[in-house]
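Intended use. Records such as the Sentan-like entry shown here are meant for training and evaluating sequence-to-structure methods. They are not intended to support clinical decisions.
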Amino acid sequence: MPKTLPISKQLASVKAFGKASDLEMATATAALVFYNSAGPDGKLSKAGAKDLLLTQFQIFTRGQETKPKYKEIFADLEVEKENKMDLEDFMVLVISLTVMSDVIQDIQNTQTSK
């Protein structure tokens, strides 16, 4: 069940993030998105993880449906949907989908156009 306080306000409430790097803020944001959807035990069902990835990670998942790794990831989320995953497992999925995404090439291209 998602929290109602915006992520930016949640991050602002953590004193350590006053001097956080971009990478630290990105990681903290991903963790907060996960924990805002997780249950009281700090875990998310596979069905919840699939829904979160499809709604909050659309730019990275769009157009990937025919790739074997994409199919494998989402097929695993369909098996035993009630099984839960922790933040570490979820972040591995996020990184896997990021690396295989076509958007990663666009991101890389921003570096060559400097």
